[in-house]
Every structure is written in C-alpha cells, then in structure tokens.
Amino acid sequence: MSTLNPCITDWNNRSVWLIGASSGIGLACATHLVKLGAKVTVSARNMDLLLSFKRDNPSSMVAEMDVTRIESISQAFEQVKNHHGIDVVVYCAGHYLEQNADKFNLQEMIKHNDINYLGLCRVLSFILNPMIAQRFGHISIISSVAGFQGLPKSLAYGPTKAALINLSESMYFDLHGHGIGVSLVNPGFVQTPLTAQNKFHMPALITTDQAAVEMIKGWRKGDFEIHFPKKFTLVLKFLKILPYFIYFKMVAKATQSTK
Length: 259
Known about the structure:
Elements: E1 15-19, H1 24-35, E2 39-43, H2 47-56, E3 61-62, H3 70-83, E4 88-91, H4 106-134, E5 137-142, H5 157-175, E6 180-187, H6 208-221, E7 225-228, H7 230-240, H8 244-256
Parallel strand pairs: 1-2, 1-4, 2-3, 4-5, 5-6, 6-7
Helix pairs in contact: 1-6, 3-4, 4-5
C-alpha cells in the first residue's frame, strides 16, 4: 500500500514547531524529537513550563504564544521562521471541560472553539503560504476519537475535534500536490492534565510517551490518520458504521457502566 504522505524517517536537523507543548502529548512528543536530532521549538502560554523544557533540552527553542491572539501568533511565527525555519508544525493546543446539553454553557462552547479549532485556523493563516512557496513541509493536527461521533459529556469538546478531522481531510486534498504532508492524530484516552479531570473509567488509557511513539511511528510510515491505541480506536471506528438506533443504545450502555 502506497503512503499518503512523504515519510519522515530522518529527524536530524529538521525544524519542528510544536504548538501547545508545555504539557501532555505535545511535551512528550517534543522530548522524543529532540532525542532524534530535530530542531524543536515549543510554544504555549505557560512560559515557566516552556523554560523548564528548555533547561532539560538546551538545543530547543521556546516561543511563548497564545493561539487565541493573532498578534501573539505573529510574533512566535516570525521567531520560529527566522531561527529554525518551518518544516513540520504539530498543533497540540487543546481545551477540554465536560459539558452536557442540560447544563449548557455558552462561554465554554466558545472557549473550546477558540482554542481547539480557531486557534489552528489562525496558525494556518501564517504557515500555509511559506510552506506552499517552499514546496515541502508537514502539518500534523491532534484531534481525538471524540470527534468521530457524538458522545455523552462531550457537547463542547467533541464538535471542535470533528471540525479538526474534517479540516485535515480537506487540507490533504489541497496540499498534497504542493508536496506538503498532512497528518491527523486521533488518540483515545491519554494520561494528560486534560483527562485527569475525568471521573469515569477511561478504557485503554496510555501514557503520553506511548502516544508520542505512536505519532513518530505514523509519520515514519507516511500515514494520514494516526490513531491509537488500536484496541480502543478500532472499536469506535466500528461503531461509526452502525445505524444510529444501535449506536445510541451501545454507547449509552457502555458509558453508564463507566460512571
């Protein structure tokens, strides 16, 4: 089977900009890529955590950035472009707070959209033209299996992840001919500060290091979608093809048993 993206097999001196990398999957991925010889830049709002990463990884660069502010993105983009260049951009920024429709919170709905989806759109407004001009590069977007279909307690989070999935698919069509890879990362449950707030059992829970290894493996194979752990994500993919009356019944039963 042919690969959908150019395979990334050598990270030595490759510029990688990880956005939302002060903790969680982004931080773990940055740590692994530094060890593989990449020129890593980490961005987030928490400068203390970024500087802590740099102390442990002196070859890296930090660029403070708030994905909800266009001026902040502009400054970080110029810093990365001028010092490291733009080869690979990984969008890891995310916000999650469980929400049900019977406790609708408009402010949280807007915040999820502003960080999870519109934050990426703002970043794309800076990186797409330079990548197209240089005719190479890779954009990797961390979405979630929560974007596959509607789930309980995911009223605010799930729709933003569904938007990322659709956006990634569309970008693949548009950018493939320009020599630019696009990959979509759909993790299951990963031990991060975001999932730490969950009060229910999280099946097939993995560590951030395991997630980073799976991502690097997917980039090496040229995959478009990188999803893990398979024993969990494949079940959710199967649920997608079921009629709604079966899907709703099975998910309701499964989630009731995990409360």
